[in-house]
Specification:
Largest sheet: 8 strands, parallel
Shape: globular
Radius of gyration: 18 Å
Bound molecules: pyridoxal-5'-phosphate
Helix content: 40-55%
Oligomer: single chain
């Protein structure tokens, strides 16, 4: 096996980037008339080796997001996860539910009743309740998972009937667009829907979390009401896929 060599320069840049992103989030919150504490930074750790993730964790990162069940289970023991919240943010296949339920604090990527039913079933077997977000495909892209916004409320109502699963809010990845106005429209559509459902006070649906915004667009997301921004490459550098 090739020896893994820690890149000291990269460690330093994780530190610099983490601090810089934290202050940019605070500044965008203040610009939007929001309180900086209302917006949490999630460090998105997919493909990142544990040593670099741990640097963010010692700096105070208290929320991480992973995409793949296998990858997360493979590296979690190397991470300093005391007091750190873990979310699964990648597309989840029904046959992987058994492995991830109980391992993370939230599954942000629930986009079908079938998946929700499996999470409910496995959670009840394990005697726990799993917190979830419902993922919305706000740009109706074929390449993305998530429910269309027109079908969102119906799905939420169905999931709310299930045992051992708790809806906490919504997650989205908008289309990549270099047009700021269009981007803002996607984010504000999400916010409207979030507020709309929240105001209905439906049993077993807590609309507290609106997870949107990534490295390239988190400032616009914060301006439009996001309260979790999921940032990967702007902290850890460009991803290398193996
Ligand atoms: C990879 C990923 C992110 C972070 O993307 P960056 O552009 O690197 O910040 C956020 N959310 C999800 C669901 C992801 O898969």
């Amino acid at each position: 096996m090739e020896k893994f060599i820690v890149d000291e320069a990269r460690l330093q840049s994780v530190e610099d980037n983490y601090k810089a992103i934290k202050s940019r989030i605070e500044e965008s919150a203040i610009r939007a008339g929001r309180s900086p504490e209302d917006v949490r930074l999630m460090a998105v750790t997919k493909t990142v080796e544990s040593v670099y993730i741990n640097r963010a964790l010692v700096l105070g990162a208290d929320l991480i997001g992973e995409n793949r069940v296998q990858e997360y289970l493979g590296k979690k023991d190397e991470l300093h996860l005391n007091g750190v919240e873990k979310h699964l943010i990648g597309h989840l296949q029904t046959n992987k539910v058994k492995q991830i339920v109980g391992e993370v604090d939230m599954i942000e990527s629930v986009d079908s009743l079938k998946l929700a039913k499996e999470i409910s079933r496995v959670s009840s077997n394990k005697g726990i309740t799993t917190n979830i977000l419902v993922e919305v495909n706000v740009g109706k892209e074929d390449s993305k998972s998530g429910i269309y916004i027109e079908q969102l409320e119906e799905l939420l109502l169905e999931i709310a009937q299930l045992d051992n699963i708790k809806i906490n809010g919504l997650m989205t990845i908008p289309p990549i667009c270099d047009n700021e106005k269009e981007l803002n429209e996607y984010f504000s559509t999400m916010y409207q829907s979030f507020i709309d459902i929240k105001s209905k006070k439906i049993d077993n649906i807590d609309m507290n979390i609106l997870s949107m915004g990534m490295s390239g667009d988190f400032e616009a997301a914060v301006a439009n009401g996001s309260n979790i921004v999921r940032v990967g490459s702007a902290i850890f550098g460009a991803r290398k896929y193996f």
